[in-house]
Amino acid sequence: MMNKRTKLQSFMLYALVIALVVFCIFPFLQILSTSLKHPIDWGNPSLIPKILHLDAYKELLGLMPPKDVDIPASIQRLLDNPALSEAKKQALITKFTSGGDVFSFGRYMLNTFVISLVTGVCATFLASLAAYAIARLRFPGQSVMANGVLFVYMVGGVLLMVPLYQMSVSVGLASSVAGTLFSLFLIYLIQTLPVAMYMLGNYFRTIPFSLEEAAMMDGCSRVEAFWRIIMPLSKPMLFTVFIYCFVIAWNEYLFASVFLKQYQDFHTLPLALQTLFTSKNAIWDRIMAASMLTLLPVIICFMLANRHLSGGLTEGGVKG
Amino acid sequence: MSSVIIRNVNKSYGTLPIVKNLNLEVQDGEFVVLVGPSGCGKSTTLRMVAGLEDITQGDIDVGGRTVNDLPPHKRNIAMVFQNYALYPHMSVKENIVFGLKKSGADAQTIQNKLADVSEMLKLEPYLDRKPADLSGGQRQRVAMGRALARDADVYLFDEPLSNLDAKLRHHMRTEIARIQHQYNMTAIYVTHDQIEAMTLGDRVVVMRDGIVEQVGSPMEIYLQPTNTFVATFIGSPAMNLIEATVNENVLVIDDYHIPAADIANVDLTELNKHHSVLVGIRPDFFEDSSLNSPSDNVFEFNDIQVDLVENLGFDKEVLFKLGGEDSKARLDLRSHVQRKEHISLTVDLNRVLIFDTSTEGVLLNPGALINPTDLSDPNG
Ligand SMILES: Nc1ncnc2c1ncn2[C@@H]1O[C@H](COP(=O)(O)OP(=O)(O)O)[C@@H](O)[C@H]1O
Ligand SMILES: [Mg+2]
């Protein structure tokens, strides 16, 4: 314990830590701030909005009565221009109040949630079986397999994108929505499994083998020992791995953009956000509110994972 | 309950032999203790019986069936691990009944067993705690309870007390002895502690380097060790081994001439074939000459210079040189010997053993086997 730290040292340490934290969370604060600002406030560099303006959120979450779809201020200014002909003004107004092109945030969120959940559950399940085999069993080719899976990480996604899409076209998966989603799911699995296996494998190795031996003496087969001892003991790590896989799938843009391009209804949030940026709905508060809502589950996940990780479950089982 | 037969069992890791041609029969209801220094293959032997290690060669029968190829969970054997190996995510109660539940016992049986075991091991106050919230001694008792709650054919113990402090170890040793008599279980108990071996075993198996050196009752092992290894490993302080030259029926140590004919354990003709031998005298078999009425078959070392006296309360350990060796005698509190004093020590020649210097085997007179009925009284 360094309890002999001087005041100056403490001060420097805290200053550094705070600087680092601010640096990390500043973008998030910026997003949050902009999403809450009223259009009149956008030019203001202050992080604190003059008026709290929740319309962007309401709109994204479908809480606004459809009538209230506003003409954005920029357009309004345009409309106020006396040089513009009445017909053009009408066209602009209908275009912006039609609501037919409203960004269906809920739908995208559901898409993303479903594919992330399925990926998270399946990857965690498969990774735990694989990690157990690699951590505990002895079989030919074990180390090749253990290290081979990490190879996926040496090849960038951009390189694999086209070949993978071609493959899914060749086997006929890309021709249907279900097939496309399935290929995407497979890709996410492959992308998340190596790290998931690595995390779980290392965790399994910290569980004393004698616990399994004890279970076997108590009448469990090896498989039962895995389910009744190893899995319950690994809950914190399983949860963390699940969160990791979930978040990877939640944020994934590259493959989704290639595979789902033609299926607008099945777009995931990162893809939809990209579309939003370039659409006529590209309005700062709305973009930032959508970004914020996309971030939110990730932040919640990490807070949960953090809390879960602090308690060591395997403590107390064996002596020394 | 059932017997265990280990027949010509070998175990190697790679080419390194660990257990060499082991033979052992454990009777139904017998408590056998495997004892030996660390690394001699005791745990390996136990784990082969449990099914946690493969047998390189040989057979193991449990309850009349050969179990070589049965996985551990089909052998119906309970085991207490050296590191306890409690399930950390389960409460004490769940730990104890885990195996019982697994075997399909009905709720009533489980309840009764749990009550039995937790009462016997005084675990009632802790049943709902997790292992992490228990002290070392309590964890050890839970590990014990988990095995005892099972209705197993054989119970295996792998140094269950080695992680406890001395006082607790003594207490638990007594508890185990009590439980063993109450349950009359077939058990193999592994320890490196010769006191545990002596106090717990119906029979003691002394192992060294994967080989069984001697099998016998604790008193047989104590009084009639077959070689110097067993002689010095069992008993504390260790047996004194003093080199003596053989001179026509007389053993010469320093200036002492011990008439070999009076040493009941040794065969004279055999002894006379040797030039020098090791004379084994347990520290306990020395007595302060001034305190004892002379009996018929004793030898008196009448000029012993005391190098050191260690007072242990009732006992005192006296260090001196005999035949150039550091030797020990354990005298009781009646003796008032002091450091640097010259004293006289008597030894009962009936208890003296003679070992071959080169083979380290005992030179035993087959006619002089100690009558088991007076095994309990070392002065008898
Ligand atoms: N998995 C293993 N691989 C190689 N050698 C081993 C293995 N397990 C034990 N040994 C060796 O076998 C010997 C006996 O071990 P063990 O049976 O645990 O001894 P102990 O009598 O102390 O219980 C030791 O020398 C140990 O190093
Ligand atoms: Mg051992």
Describe it for me?
The complex is a heterodimer of chains A (320) and B (380). Chain A folds into two domains: 7-53, no CATH class; 105-314, MetI-like fold, CATH 1.10.3720. Chain A is built from 14 helices and no strands. Chain A is 68% helix and 0% strand. Chain B has helices at residues 42-50, 92-102, 107-120, 136-149, 166-183, 194-200, 218-223, 228-233, 268-272; strands spanning 4-13, 16-26, 31-35, 57-62, 65-66, 77-80, 154-158, 187-191, 203-208, 211-216, 240-246, 250-253, 256-259, 276-281, 286-288, 298-311, 315-322, 325-332, 342-348, 353-356. Chain B has a six-stranded mixed sheet with strand order 6-7-8-3-9-10, sandwiched between helices. In chain B, 24% of the residues lie in helices and 33% in strands. In chain B, β12 and β13 (256-259) form a beta hairpin. In chain B, α3 (107-120) packs antiparallel against α4 (136-149). Chain B folds into two domains: 4-227, 3-Layer(aba) Sandwich (Rossmann fold); 229-364, Beta Barrel (OB fold (Dihydrolipoamide Acetyltransferase, E2P)), CATH 2.40.50.140. The A-B interface holds A 208, 210-211, 213-222, 224, 229, 232-233, 313-320 and B 50-52, 71-73, 76-79, 81-89, 98-99, 102-103, 130-134, 136, 139, 146, 150, 163. The complex binds adenosine-5'-diphosphate and magnesium ion. The site of magnesium ion has 3 residues of chain B, from α1. Chain B: One of its GO terms (cellular component) is ATP-binding cassette (ABC) transporter complex, substrate-binding subunit-containing. Chain B: Keywords: ATP-binding, Nucleotide-binding, Transport. Chain B: This is Carbohydrate ABC transporter ATP-binding protein (CUT1 family). Chain B: Pfam families: ABC_tran (PF00005), OB_MalK (PF17912).
